[in-house]
């Protein structure tokens, strides 16, 4: 099904899924208004129709999901029968895990990863695996060896990364929710590009995924991308039922804004010196004015981090690439072929080899950043920033085929706000607040104190009510209609 125009593409139709978010869809299944089987069939049809346009699916689990929908293992689970996808850097028994790389042979996982078990315990129905860039290192889902994943708002543009497949599938209406994880912004960046809610939890809030446990500084958190705040809030509440970290304050189930007056710090420019583009800056400023109108105190604040942070995080990022190339045969598959890694991975690996001697001091400073951030946040309830330094780029701008030095510079000017939450372990959320002239969402980020996801959800609920998100459904679904006609 060709879709070469820049017009938005979506799959929302009058079928069993409709325009329901996960919360509503679960309630409709529980009440018997729709069956889990009908929902699964509708979602599978949407996935098959969207795949030639968006390329967000890397491994299908459709037949198994349809069989499971006929007899849900736990019909009383909070999201029983709600279809979703799991990102392809997380093991699910019976499905291959490719990590977005040609270097990893097709290998079927024997067991399901720890976080995937936590998520599936909520009753979600897994339709398969969603796409990501190689090892999640890039900020766009454009693997060098495969077709890119396209943004449903404008298929000529990036869907973000590294959870780009998940975000594209949710934004287009294939499923209402999908798994995502975040090591430098990989929940918040694709959520921002695709107009979704993306919350990176506090470090330790959810079960650690398998890759994060051995890191000297655990920068990775798992979560979801959704179209509604209540879906994200529901996921976190039920994740907490499955696993409660006693070192963090309990979130509970957040159902709306709090009514509290908050003191919110405002950061418009990143610590790395790259300026924020005018559209992104004005979106953040407009959000600040709206919050002030609603009774909150918003004031400029210094970036709550050491000025060496951009270089420190870049070296740590490059260390991950070095580790993958050096130990991929142990970490991923015995037949891992490092000759097939892309030029971004290779460039990061070379950068680490050149500067590896700095690593001990970098790890010390990154570990200390938890305390530095906590001290900066003593007088603030939240911080408002851009998610990204620039609006969503067209496909090709961040491709791993771009020469490494140029690509690295582009990434530094684009991804210059999200990594702070990964190093410090703080919670952060992305919410959409505007559209560009190219029909691309522009989002803002809020960060909060460690363990205070509740404040982030309450702020997101407030903005969702006061300035509802841009809706892709207001655009025609002509490409989808034409595909259905061809099938019939």
Looking at this protein, list some descriptive labels:
globular, alpha+beta, eight-stranded mixed sheet, three-stranded mixed sheet, 488 residues, 38% helix, 13 strands, disordered C terminus, 14% strand
Spell out the blueprint of helices and strands.
Layout lengths: L21 H10 L4 H19 L2 E4 L1 H9 L12 E5 L26 H7 L4 E6 L19 E2 L2 E5 L5 H8 L5 E6 L5 H7 L2 E4 L20 E6 L2 H14 L20 E4 L11 H16 L3 E4 L8 H23 L11 H13 L3 H18 L5 E5 L17 H11 L4 H6 L3 E8 L5 E8 L4 H14 L11 H10 L1
Parallel strand pairs: 2-3, 9-10, 9-11
Antiparallel strand pairs: 1-3, 4-5, 6-8, 7-8, 7-12, 11-13, 12-13
Helix pairs in contact: 2-3, 5-6, 7-14, 9-10, 9-11, 10-12
Describe the structure.
The protein is α+β, with helices and mostly antiparallel strands. The protein has helices at 22-31, 36-54, 62-70, 114-120, 164-171, 188-194, 229-242, 278-293, 309-331, 343-355, 359-376, 404-414, 419-424, 453-466, 478-487; strands at residues 57-60, 83-87, 125-130, 150-151, 154-158, 177-182, 197-200, 221-226, 263-266, 297-300, 382-386, 428-435, 441-448. The longest helix has 23 residues, at 309-331. The chain starts with 21 loop residues before the first helix and ends with a helix.
